[in-house]
Amino acid sequence: MPTNFTVVPVEARAGVDGDGSGDDAAERTEAPGIPPGVECERPNSGDGTPRESSPFIGSVDMERDSYYEGKNMALFEEEMDSNPMVSSLLNKLATYTNLSQGVVEHEEDEDSRRREAKAPRMGTFIGVYLPCLQNILGVILFLRLTWIVGAAGVLESFLIVSMCCTCTLLTAISMSAIATNGVVPAGGSYYMISRSLGPEFGGAVGLCFYLGTTFAGAMYILGTIEIFLTYISPGAALFHAEGAGGEAAAMLHNMRVYGTCTLALMAVVVFVGVKYVNKLALVFLACVVLSILAIYAGVIKTAFDPPDIPVCLLGNRTLAKHSFDTCAKVHMVNNGSAIVTTALWGLFCNGSSSSATCDQYFMQNNVTEIQGIPGVASGVFLANLWSTYSDKGAFVEKEGVLAVPVPDESRASGLPYVLTDITTYFTLLVGIYFPSVTGIMAGSNRSGDLKDAQKSIPTGTILAIVTTSLIYLSCIVLFGACIEGVVLRDKFGEALQGNLVIGMLAWPSPWVIVIGSFFSTCGAGLQSLTGAPRLLQAIARDGIVPFLQVFGHGKSNGEPTWALLLTAFICETGILIASLDSVAPILSMFFLMCYLFVNLACAVQTLLRTPNWRPRFKFYHWTLSFLGMSLCLALMFICSWYYALFAMLIAGCIYKYIEYRGAEKEWGDGIRGLSLNAARYALLRVEHGPPHTKNWRPQVLVMLNLDAEQAVKHPRLLSFTSQLKAGKGLTIVGSVLEGTFLDKHAEAQRAEENIRALMGVEKTKGFCQLVVSSSLRDGTSHLIQSAGLGGMKHNTVLMAWPQAWKQADNPFSWKNFVDTVRDTTAAHQALLVAKNIDAFPQNQERLGEGHIDVWWIVHDGGMLMLLPFLLRQHKVWRKCRMRIFTVAQEADNSIQMKKDLQMFLYHLRISAEVEVVEMVENDISAFTYEKTLMMEQRSQMLRQMQLSKTEQEREAQLIHDRNTAAHAAGATRSQAPPTPDKVQMTWTKEKLTAERHKDKSAGSAAGFRDLFSLKPDQSNVRRMHTAVKLNGVVLAKSQDAQLVLLNMPGPPRNRQGDENYMEFLEVLTEGLNRVLLVRGGGREVITIYS
């Protein structure tokens, strides 16, 4: 790809040197023409063409030509602030550099990027290939690979290495696709995973990767100490074995003490001079390369000159050569004239004399000596093909050697046998081996220092994996072909007088391997202690895990001091385990978890086919990523199922913590795209028809009213919603602003922010939908019709009772309410109206003993039964008991009604008290008659007020039309001579008032006389009678209830009686504290069937 380019401007531009020409251009575009009075000569370039349109470069007079700059783009001048010109964008891209920035995203670091940047220097070989090589080849190769080959055999070892290397190769392919999908700033694998899978997965996997790197540091330190105490200086041990069988415990204590001291020393080195660690990386790499070359050289040498490394066997049991030199029971002295027992005899017998009592197995079996490294041409390869697993404490025995077994042998400790220190099996060896193939992220972690990261990361990483895989596989074959099986299974080289097995194979000296492996493991530990704190600092600075933010700070130069302290503390826990074989499976889990999510990220992005997924690396496929993900998961459970579950539990806990408490980040991640695809699929599935009655639940549209400051008037409505829904189903919080969208855009945005903030406070999980409409009535109707998407539409509308419907300053507020009731009925949606909503409990309150009373007057599909059941699921209403009242007429059998209702509730599995209230027919009281009369008088007055308003509007329109005609006539007269016989009418305020009252005075007086001579309508009297009677019964039974649910009667078919309908509802609920009026949607919502 081109790394630099030049944009040649066609027209000369003033201020090219960056002296603020942008501001001048902006000022000039305000006046695209040349100001009057300014003489501007257009210079010619020799071709007769004015300079303004000349295609040649080099202006003679920049100042004179500056008036014309930007005129070609004048059509877009108002968009320049938000949408820069392409030339400006390309100029920024040309000066871009991907220097290491920690985890601050490149979009947020424009100011610091303007300073001069040093050119990236590292290419594929130095920047990616060698670091990966150094990280992959390490402690397991030198200390455990021979033992793995001896225990598992060549075939199963080949299988172990093949599985692990295939896993890392597939992960590298997925990582290459992600790394080449755009510029990857410094941050490596954490950056790639978090930006591909989102902050939750990114934080969880980033912390797992951090823990894996930290435990890797502990493993390298333990390996360093094991090499030092076992092969370099065994005499430096502080603890020694007390009694027989105490060697293992003493070794663990030595590892803890020396490991802690080494960790402290390394932490000080990293804190003081991290740059020296980076400079020494090449030295550590040279140690690794020289050690591997020494191994291959030693293998070649064994083909024609095998080394003389004798191994002593007693029967078929391998003996540890610590306390004896001669592999024999006795030896001849004085030219064979005398037989003298050896030191070996003294170890198995209670004396040095030939008549001493000896171990029975020692007496019945011969001592033999074999070559530990017979060489490639010896044919030992066939004997090492198959596995030889054993239990802890078992003898390391050579197969094919005759031995006399001893019945009921008591395994006396203290005898110089080579014993297995742990129980070996296939899955254990997988867990111990896997850390030797980790380190494939080393190149991506240096992405900020690479010359071309999109080319170097895939090439270098895959080449490093192929190289190391070939090294491992060839070493397995060569170890099996050169080394005797009992020596391979001798983990600490006890049969070789405490020498490193792989060192004895090397040429020219075993010390090449010992010293090389010592420095390489020491360097790997330093690298881990250098990289892990920076990874933690990157996660902390992203702000996705709040409790880690303190670890984002460090020294003035950016070194992560606090993160280094935490890393050292976690690393110390690994060192206290003190066993390399126990620490290795732990870090295997964390690395496998990280690799699993790298593959998942690539598979998700590939399957979603997001427009931004355009990797430059083309050799990937979602099936490869899926295979790599499956292999990672399988290896996790193969290594250790309980470690795997524990690692997944840690990642899950971190995920949920970030989800609920972490900062919200929008990184355009694949999980969000996956959620959108899943939502689309689910919406298409639920599109086919309404849900079954068993699956019905209220999907609520909450209608909120806003005040002048766009704040919510009744926040308790959202509290009630969360209590009713408990986070289940669909909740849409809607509101309407009156006006036009262009004028009210800012207010609408502020109102939406206020609603979302309140939803967060009230813990209402749902969506916010705000509509700007020319009238509140139309906006409410639009919300009821169009809120939701596809099958995810609301089926219930929840709103507050309009308390101010009687106020004189707002005489028509009730019309919106009644029309909303009609809209919900027409849309077959249920309606819930909460009266006295401000008296409803908040989510923090806990109602004590009380009742939720249901007054079941007419059947509404079961809404009245379902709502109390849902409310009692919430802790606010949990202690309230449910009572159901129904009304019996004179012709009804109230006793039978009660039995039937109890049986109905039993089948519904709802526990509630049942009571049947009898309403006796009686005469209409004078109070009812008078209340109806007052209601109708008020309605008549409102109609006259509405009529007056209509007439005012009609007369105002008439005045406007006449004024328009008068202006038109005046314009005509200015062109033609005035005509004296035409007289212009002028409407003054007095004339208008007189004209309006002239015809209305008589009719108006008659209208108000009729107002006081009204007789109430008989149907209204009956309705009022029902409302008064029912209100009295409800007050008598439910005045102390915590909540009363009532059937809401429908509005009248005749729109003339809408205001009377409001009065009926007011009378029906008068005197009650908390009321929920319920109107069903015309379908059954509850069933007795399973």
Notes on the protein architecture:
The protein is of the alpha/beta class and 1090 residues long. The protein has four domains: 119-304 and 426-639, Amino acid/polyamine transporter I (Up-down Bundle); 310-420, no CATH class; 690-816, Rossmann fold, CATH 3.40.50; 846-967 and 1018-1089, 3-Layer(aba) Sandwich (Rossmann fold). It is 52% helix and 7% strand. It contains 33 helices and 15 strands. The strands form three sheets. The chain has a ten-stranded mixed sheet, with helices on both faces. Strands 2-1-5 form a three-stranded antiparallel sheet, with no helix packed on it. Strand 9, helix 27 (813-826) and strand 10 form a beta-alpha-beta unit. The two termini are 66 Å apart. Mean pLDDT is 78; it is low at 1-71, 93-120, 970-989 and 998-1013.
